[in-house]
Amino acid sequence: MINGRELIAYVSFYNEGRWEDIYDFIKQKKPVDKDEVNDISNKLNSEYVTLLDEKYPNVFKKKLSKPPFTLFYKGDYSLILDSKYKRLSIVGSRKATKYGIEAVKKIIRELPSNYVIISGLAYGIDSIAHQTALECGLKTIAVLGSGINSPYPEVNLSLYNDIVANGGLIISEYPNLTKPQKENFIFRNRIIACLGDFLLVGEAYERSGTSTTISYALQCGNNVGCIPYPIGTNSMCNTYIKEGAYLIDSGKEIINIMNNESGSY
Taking residues 219-232, what's their average pLDDT? Predict the structure, then answer.
């Protein structure tokens, strides 16, 4: 007898985490072989939770129209569930400037020890957010757009390992060595946006994936803040601030907003 948890994990593996394919597979009630399910279960070389598990994040069920069917993970999963933590998502350009890098570092350094930094392990602002969190003794969560055992870009493998070694967490809806695909990174942004209690934009430009993350955060009812940029720069942060995002120039600003949970952009 195949239980529901095993079935969802199997279908997620079989379809390499592709949400629409998993949904169609389940909707059509495609037949599965018990031996094949068992074989796949043995090939899953990370821990995981499914939509049917008690410790699956309720926030995804409540706020996402397409919650991940399975979350594969490595590290301390309690960082998602434990109420003692404040979870701050940070996103930004892969081509980060010195200004953006130093501003993000400054803000993270001003946060207390119960803050968890969430980002996407990409080049630029993402990497800086994870690295600075580790340097400050904060926990950090990396949400991958590739397989749980296939960090991308590969140059961040050491950062990936450092996150786990220092009590952080790696999560992905894509199993094992699933290869990175552009659409997967855009889609995973909904997880980054929803998992945090607040979204900070460190640096952004036109045609940036950051705009999709902001959209996801607003759909989830989460507040959004941006680091202001000097006049004449090409950053979209000032535009977002004009449209209603919080202007964030210190860690104290974030702490006050997250403590009060007032307003919304």
Answer: 94
